[in-house]
Design brief:
four-stranded antiparallel sheet; Four Helix Bundle (Hemerythrin (Met), subunit A); Rossmann fold; elongated; four-stranded parallel sheet; 469 residues; 3 domains; alpha/beta
Length: 469
């Protein structure tokens, strides 16, 4: 049953159950999402959390809620130092360049920006204050220029990932650690590291995990509604975030922990494995709409195989949606005089199914299926013996466009009236003339040439109409 506050339920990794999304005391839904480490151009997999949580914000906003979305950028990191050394540039310059490219690439998706995009370098006072608080509470200790978190003093450690402390293996080196599982909050400066800050524990820079704890608290406060990110961050990153924030304050960090699954391209897509496709390459080869369509056709908690076949199918799905919007525009030029009851009932049913699907763990595949029910109803209505009235056509188009906007596909309706290229218009005119002379062999040849340009031609009572393939 839908929660009365937002109507939406999401699977919570911490409790392993669907739970209602309940706004905060001021009515706001606050979302924090872990963003990328900027040591190179982002790949398609990096874009999945950006798309998922941007669209989640859109849907909740559509439902009438105020939503604040925060996604950070990690601009100080071992990987950044290594990449800068390979390129022979200062690490700060490399991080600034790839931060800019990340924003440019994700801007092309057309989903807008998060409300806040904090960086590590812009959040040092908050990070230092949180480390000091953990040291004061004896949950952290300085050692050889580093500062480590005492994992065995936080009773809830492992609850998010479902791991027992005695079964965990440390993945973080450190000779001065008291316990193998302790992790770094502050890392003393090492030779060759050209980005560093002074601190009460010596020169250095933050550890990876403390950054998000500090940035989330600084932008959203404590006990915010949703913490999101990729499933690969559950352990140790998000587990450590919980330990740091809740250890320092004795208060819950976030109400819900929501994770998207990984993309697969011969295994998990990652820069370190080298099996990646850059987001910009996918946008150039297909289109922003096709990339978004690729994401929303699968549930965010499902593994998602990426490849030419999947992207080509996403492109075809975009074309079907765009053609339905164009069909409505054509019908508006020669409307009927009666309401089409089939179109009306299909639209009502589809809108209900659309909202229900997104309320149920943000089920974008179900929402997309509802969109294609509208596509089918539009095609039946405009190809039938009597077209809908102009008022019904306009109302259908508006509601169709609204559904598409929520899924990040609004441009498929907005650009429905894009002009046909002049060369295609010329070929269509020649084909009309050939058909008028009953030279169907020439007409078929001209149709093939039109298709080579990426368009199809249909013969209707109102004349030839062209649509993109």
């Amino acid at each position: 049953m839908a929660d009365e506050a937002t109507g939406m339920r999401l699977y919570d990794t911490r409790t392993r159950a669907e739970r209602p999304v309940e706004p905060g005391p001021d009515g706001t839904v606050r979302i924090y999402v872990c963003g990328p480490t900027v040591y190179g151009p982002i790949h398609v997999g990096n874009a999945r959390p950006f798309v998922v949580f941007s669209l989640m914000k859109r849907f909740l906003t559509h439902r009438g809620h105020r939503v604040v979305l925060v996604s950070n950028l990690t601009d100080v990191n071992d990987k950044i130092y290594a990449a800068a050394a390979r390129e022979g540039v200062p690490s700060a310059d490399l991080a600034e360049r790839y931060s800019r490219e990340y924003r440019e690439d994700t801007d092309r998706l057309g989903l807008g920006r998060p409300d806040h995009e904090p960086t590590v370098t812009g959040s040092l006072p908050a990070i230092l204050a949180l480390i000091a608080q953990l040291v004061e509470r004896d949950l952290a200790y300085p050692a050889g220029g580093d500062v480590y978190f005492r994992v065995d003093r936080f009773p809830g450690y492992g609850r998010l990932s479902g791991r027992r402390l005695e079964d965990m293996i440390s993945g973080e080196p450190g000779e001065a650690k008291e316990h193998p599982l302790d992790f770094a909050l502050w890392k003393g400066r090492k030779e060759g590291e050209d980005t560093w800050w002074d601190s009460p524990w010596g020169p250095g820079r933050p550890g990876w995990h403390i950054e998000c704890s500090a940035m989330a608290e600084q932008t959203l406060g404590l006990d915010f509604e949703i913490h999101g990110g990729g499933i690969d961050l559950v352990f140790p990153h998000h587990e450590n975030e919980i330990a740091q924030t809740e250890g320092a304050h004795g208060h819950r960090m976030a109400k819900l922990w929501v994770h998207n699954e990984m993309l697969e391209l011969g295994g998990k897509m990652s820069k370190s494995e080298g099996n990646i496709v850059l987001l910009r390459e996918a946008l150039d080869r297909w289109s922003p709409e096709a990339v978004v369509m690729f994401f929303v056709r699968s549930h965010h908690r499902s593994k998602l195989p990426f490849g030419d076949k999947a992207m080509d199918e996403a492109s075809r799905m975009c074309a079907r949606v765009r053609n339905a919007a164009r069909a409505l525009d054509r019908a508006a030029s020669a409307p009927g005089t009666e309401i089409d009851p089939g179109l009306a009932s299909a639209l009502v049913a589809a809108r209900t199914a659309f909202v229900d699907a997104l309320d149920d763990d943000f089920g974008t595949p179900g929402a997309l299926a509802a969109v294609f029910e509208v596509v089918a109803a539009i095609n039946r209505a405009v190809d039938g013996p009597a077209r809908p009235t102009l008022e019904q056509i306009h109302a259908t188009r508006m509601q169709f466009a609204e559904m598409l906007h929520i899924l990040g596909l609004g441009t498929l309706a907005a650009d429905a009236a894009d002009p046909v290229p002049d060369e295609v218009r010329r070929l269509v005119a020649e084909r009309d003339a050939a058909r008028g002379r009953r030279d169907f062999t020439l007409a078929d040849g001209l149709r093939a040439r039109i298709q080579e340009h990426g368009w199809d031609v249909r013969d209707t009572p109102e004349g030839a109409q062209v649509t993109p393939l």
